[in-house]
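dumping this here so i dont lose it
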């Protein structure tokens, strides 16, 4: 019997790596994005033995760079893809109410109308259908139905909008997620159900017996060591890297291509509104999404054929987003308002359409050779369906009868009993000495696991202090990121455990040194390593900022590649 834990600290990583060397696993999942972590949880919760390998960090690929919406996708209605919308709306309700109510929350959007009668009819009919599809598949997760607003009411809700930018509006509800933390919660939940999960492990080769894949050769990017992980079935869940991994067996039926999407982050006080906004563009839509003390504005949709690890946003991308949002803002945004920028790559199944933005985000699962199942495409919202399909297919190759997927009734780490802990937030504030607003912020990020963080503070009251340069977060959160959440480098903390790298004008540079000092205690860093890690983070930010001043993708990519990945340095 393997001890289960949601704690992904250095000791757990060492134990997991040892298990990977020793055991033969039913399922080895390659890729620690939402799909791979979801597949690891799906398999572990069916009672299978599971290992998950991620070459960088959980959610370091696309799964931390999305629009962070859990949605049916109103624009897919126009493509008449009702089954996709219905499925996504069912998932939306499940995530909101049962699987992760701490990480997934309602968000409303205003759809400004610019034509009087026909547009209100058309948009109203579409959103009625959206609401009905949601209710047809359950209770819509408690989200209200859409509402029609006059211009006066819309402007009262969003005074930032230009008076002449709308004749009225329709308001509808969807949900939003902390995407990086959700993926991390999946990994921790998989570990709680017995999976061995670790980051900085790159699959470099497949082990074969004849044609059959029987395992993966792995390089540990922290130690440089290579070892084999033996598997009855391997699941390739590597998003835009699908083809690269598939090339390791030399065969693949379906190809995945990448489309780049860029988002800007601006301070909340730069846009005076109590609701998100959705705007039409020539080819797609643009969202203005509330995000704590910030707004996220995005996204673009352009083909990307350059390096996949660090897609660069160019000045052209930023200009495009500012130009579109400024069409409706009374007080236009400028480059000086941009606190953060991030770019992600959509893994799209190739060959369906030349235009990336007209593709529906559907997924595929296939077996290129015996022992290797590949899953790709889809969208964040429907990761659970993708994961279940992948493990269903992998299960056919196992000699035993495998139970059906039960992730629909498996809450994520931090979710169980969340409402009760939320209701006790006043008490938690008075016993911990933290302001109730801090407790709420913690509860929204860690759910019921907040108590573990408060225990750290009880043991070392200095950890109650905010992080210098990133005052929205506490020192305890940095320590917890390394001791419980598998963070191994500054970037893991500033980009994915927290979002300091997109929420501060200096992109987290001032916080890098204090964060390194806090991590050093948990990860055993000496002065030299602290210096190296801080330098690495600063170079990364400098390269990113420079890339965002370049005119196009080619020059932006060249500038971004000026700084290497922290994990690829010595052992990549
Ligand atoms: C701009 C943008 C906006 C989006 N907005 C939304 C949205 O609002 N809502 C929504 O539902 N969906 C959205 N999506 C889609 C969604 O984000 C993706 O479909 C999803 O995150 C893909 O997850 P994944 O796990 O398949 O891929 P990834 O998250 O990229 O994970 C793949 C992982 O595999 C790892 N890997 C690669 N090669 C190896 C190897 N050899 N060994 C070990 N590990 C390896 C990578 O490091 C990576 O972490 C958006 C996507 C983009 C780009």
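and the seq i came up w/
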């Amino acid at each position: 019997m393997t001890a289960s834990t949601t704690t992904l600290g250095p000791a757990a990583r060492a134990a997991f790596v040892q298990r990977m060397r020793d055991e033969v696993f039913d399922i080895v999942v390659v890729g620690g994005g939402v799909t791979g972590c979801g597949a690891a949880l799906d398999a572990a919760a069916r009672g299978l033995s599971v290992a998950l390998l991620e070459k960088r960090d959980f959610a370091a690929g696309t799964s931390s760079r999305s629009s962070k919406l859990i949605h049916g996708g109103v624009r897919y209605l126009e493509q008449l893809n009702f089954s996709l919308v219905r499925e996504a709306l069912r998932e939306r309700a499940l995530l909101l109410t049962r699987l992760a109510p701490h990480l997934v929350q309602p968000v409303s959007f205003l759809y400004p109308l610019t034509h009087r009668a026909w547009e209100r009819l058309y948009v109203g009919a579409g959103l009625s259908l959206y609401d009905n599809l949601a209710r047809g598949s359950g209770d819509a997760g408690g989200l209200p139905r859409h509402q029609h607003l006059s211009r006066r009411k819309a402007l009262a809700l969003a005074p930032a909008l230009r008076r002449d930018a709308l004749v009225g509006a329709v308001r509808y509800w969807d949900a939003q997620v902390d995407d990086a933390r959700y993926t991390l919660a999946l990994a921790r939940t998989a570990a709680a159900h017995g999976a061995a999960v670790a980051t900085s492990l790159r699959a470099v080769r497949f082990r074969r017996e004849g044609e059959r894949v029987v395992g993966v050769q792995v390089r540990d990017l922290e130690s440089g060591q290579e070892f084999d992980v033996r598997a009855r079935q391997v699941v390739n869940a590597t998003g835009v890297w699908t083809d690269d991994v598939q090339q390791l067996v030399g065969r693949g039926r379906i190809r995945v291509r990448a489309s780049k999407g860029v988002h800007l982050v601006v301070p909340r006080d730069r846009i005076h509104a109590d609701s998100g906004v959705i705007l039409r563009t020539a080819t797609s839509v643009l969202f203005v999404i509330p995000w704590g003390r910030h707004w996220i504005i995005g996204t673009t949709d352009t083909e990307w054929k350059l390096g996949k690890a660090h897609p660069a946003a160019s000045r052209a991308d930023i200009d495009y987003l500012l130009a579109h949002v400024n069409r409706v803002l009374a007080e236009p945004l400028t480059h000086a308002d941009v606190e953060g920028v991030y770019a992600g790559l959509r893994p799209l199944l190739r060959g369906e359409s030349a235009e990336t933005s007209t593709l529906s985000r559907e997924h595929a699962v296939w077996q290129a050779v015996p022992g290797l199942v590949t899953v790709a495409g889809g969208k964040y919202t429907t990761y659970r369906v993708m994961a279940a399909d992948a493990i269903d297919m992998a299960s056919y190759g196992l000699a035993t009868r495998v139970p059906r997927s039960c992730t629909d009734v498996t809450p994520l780490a931090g979710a169980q009993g969340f409402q009760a802990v939320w209701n006790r937030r006043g008490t938690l504030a008075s016993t911990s000495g933290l302001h109730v607003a801090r407790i709420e912020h913690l509860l929204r990020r860690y759910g019921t696991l907040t108590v573990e963080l408060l225990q750290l503070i009880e043991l070392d009251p200095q950890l109650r202090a905010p992080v210098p340069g990133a005052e929205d977060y506490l020192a305890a959160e940095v320590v917890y990121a390394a001791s419980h959440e598998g963070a191994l480098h500054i970037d893991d903390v500033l980009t994915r455990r927290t979002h300091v790298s997109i929420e501060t004008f200096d992109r987290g540079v001032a916080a890098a040194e204090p964060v390194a000092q806090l991590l050093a205690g948990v990860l055993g860093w000496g002065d030299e390593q602290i210096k190296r890690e801080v330098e690495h983070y600063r170079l990364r930010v400098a390269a990113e900022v420079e890339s965002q001043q370049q005119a196009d993708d080619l020059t932006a990519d060249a500038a971004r590649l000026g700084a290497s990945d922290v994990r690829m340095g010595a052992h990549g």
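The CA atoms of residues 35 and 383 lie 5 Å apart.
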